[in-house]
Amino acid sequence: MFLVVHARTAEGGEVGVCYGRMATNLPDPATVVQLLKKNSITMVRIYDTDPTVLRSLANTGIKVTVELTNEELPSAATDQNFADQWVQNNVKAYYPATLINGVTIGNEVFKEASQLNSQLVPAMTKVQAALARLGLADAVKVTTPIAFDALKMSFPPSEGAFRDDIALSVMSPMVNFLQETGSYLMMNIYPYLAYLSTPGMSIDYLLFRPNVGVVDKNSKQTYFSLLDAQLDAVYYAMEKLPSSSLRAGGMRKLTAGGGILEVKLGESHHPTRGHHGVGTRANAQAFTDGLMSKVRGGNSGTTSNKYNRLATSAVGTPHRPNADLDVYIFELFNEDNKPEDEQDFGLFYPNQQPVYQVDFVHGAGPVQPSYCTAKATAGDAALQAALDYACGHGADCSAIQPGKPCYKPNTKLAHASYAFNDYYQKNGRASGACDFGGAGTIVNQAPSGESFGTTTIHSTVYTSGQP
User: Fold this and answer.
1) pTM
2) 15-45+144-348 fold
């Protein structure tokens, strides 16, 4: 199965990948580009300006964001000639054959190189001036990736605020710069980190699954997705910054919808191993599916059953309902030269095999039908527990009650398959909605016979359209 990650709709964002190379066994850049093309990946972020990589991406139509590194940042901040030459050598020399559309100035400077904080905006400004001199300011946007811990407060979202040491000195002039140049704020957000540090948080809230929601006590907005809450904390934090275009002490007015400063995710993903047990392939797959659905503005609205709601608003967030979201998934490969806790975020192994099967369906073709069925190997106890969960969390199990049309065959396997599939379809066929602790499995042909009960002739079977 190919891992198709391009998704752009009239109301939705786009998904790309972070192509890091801190590994001993990665394929060469030309082979990597073929992998990107094979999987319809149309947006890539790299962490340098490696000539071999940039030449390999030429004439592919893949949009590329390059990086002026933290090591180069001081020179760019203090020397316009350095910035001019850097842009000439690393952007102009490849553009437009290589479709460079962004330059990130450093990476997580506040976290990784705080001694450079005061030089960050000057470096951004000089690189922007260099692009303007070469006529590239409209095509190539300048930004900087910011770790989420740049916020001193993130919950409730309405109290989101940047840290005192950077709010006025760096973030306020940076946001002015981004607005004036038509750029965007780039945030690196890993929701699982907030989950690990918040005892009692529902994992469904993390993984875009149905949940009861979390209410912001100030705005009274209900959040069904941790990522939505974190994004809104960033929007609220920006609104609290004073603007140079307002009177002293005035707060920045960013209205919902058109005209707001866009936030892009420079990195986001979920680990497939470790991290106190939250890192599993099933959880990573559920997170990826939910993230893709959110970015597409697809089947991620709210349900009407009395138990749960789906995780995200169809477009935007509760505070910014009309805001699209572009995302770079961290990352393309598992990289063995990274710290151990950063090695298991890849979509692919170095041999180019998918780490887990993900079907990132986009608008180019019809959605393929899929179904969730129970595994006969799960055992009665596991099937009963999963059946109880599905029926108690939104699946319509009335048809498998005694005397009802789908009661026979009266086996746990048949009843569980019926309930699993109903739950799976109602949750937009997200892969994570067919996990059930390992008791469920996704199939692409409508099952028949006892293994699926009689659901193949009753109302829980769906085709490629909406349920």
Assistant:
1) 0.73
2) TIM Barrel (3.20.20)
